[in-house]
Amino acid sequence: METLNALPGWVKDRLHDAGKLADQLDLAVYLVGGIVRDVFLDHVRMDIDLMVVGDGIRFAKRLAHEHQGCMTPHSRFGTATVAFPDRTRLDIATARSEHYEMPATLPRVSPDTLEADLARRDFSINAMAICLNTPQRGMIIDPHNGRRDLENRTIRILHDRSFADDPTRLFRAVRFEQRLQFRMEHRTEQVYREAINAHWIDRLSARRLLEQVRQVCDEIDVWPIFKRLDELRVWQAISPTLGVFEGLESMVQSIDRYKNMLDTPQDVWRLYLLALLSPCDPDTLNTLSERLKPDRQLKEAIQDLPVLKAIAQRIKNKDIENPGDFYKAVRTISEDTILFSTIADQEDTVRQYCSIYYYEHRHIRPAINGLVLQDLGIPEGPMYSHILETILIKKINGEVNTEQEERRAALEIWKDREQQVGK
Ligand code: ATP
Predict the structure, then answer these.
(1) Mean pLDDT confidence for 84-105
(2) Same domain, 44 and 144
């Protein structure tokens, strides 16, 4: 069937294998979710979701067995991933319905029909399926008019409780809207704004909320999503002072440029988040850390934002005048915070200080050590760390450049100290 013909060869082969096995086992299997949407939009993608009406895990096991693949089940959800020797993968789910006993909580899940499974999905464009069994292979199942909405470039929820049932959809709606350059349909946007006013976001756990923020920051083009979430008052629903501010666009653009230079930009999402949080005061940042419960590394980076801001002020006040002073001020600050400022700080001088620290100075060590100090006849004691520390700062400031110079400087520092103590 034409629809499937447009897919890359390896995908077609995998789908053909899955369809054949489903015929043999007398099970119905469908291509579902984002890949169906993307097929109609002519977008290439690597993750392929299949849905089996029946036991999805048993089907996945057989498929893996027949094609020398490896199956990882996730029994709680009736899903499994099959990884094939050529490193391609299929995600296989059991068709299910979901019942939300309370808004914004995880639903009760039970195996169900294809129609029930499509009805539990977020938007009409994500609620289509393509049959893989013969003889209906290639048949499109589209009970919610997803194709019409694709043509009209519209994001539409399937029912009015959608955002209350699962407020993660508030983020998903904007991601798809901006990524595909679609628009939320009128009623959907109305229900969206009602959901924001009803504070459904507050019901999301820290883990689910942070995951949505991560997915936003992981999109290719982050700025339009930041802006639209602001317009829809989503940031403000998370924290009243959070939102788009003057200068954020240029920060995001700087991070975009940095991201485009990387081969694997997997952690760059953190930088976009730091940009968004950068004007917040320490109390707001603490509250946000409580709300999002990020891992330790990200928490430290968030909490160091105001610390770095204070250091930037010291540079302005000429209280920090050389790289050595800067090194002493920032060495306990999170590397992510420094990287963020290296890339996106709005002050040129701060960016330069951060950059040289991040790429060079934080890796510098003195060429000499305690043994050399012993060799020079300096008596062992707390003096050693003072000498090595002073040499390090001199090295960073370019005042000593060779090991000989370091040795000479060590003796001078020692003698100076001795004289001071003697006085
Ligand atoms: P992407 O291109 O971002 O991967 P996707 O549509 O494949 O988009 P996934 O998060 O991988 O998104 O989800 C796969 C499918 O599962 C979706 O297309 C949708 O049908 C369904 N789905 C995912 N999350 C939800 C949700 N919160 N509520 C309802 N359906 C969802």
Answers:
(1) 89
(2) yes
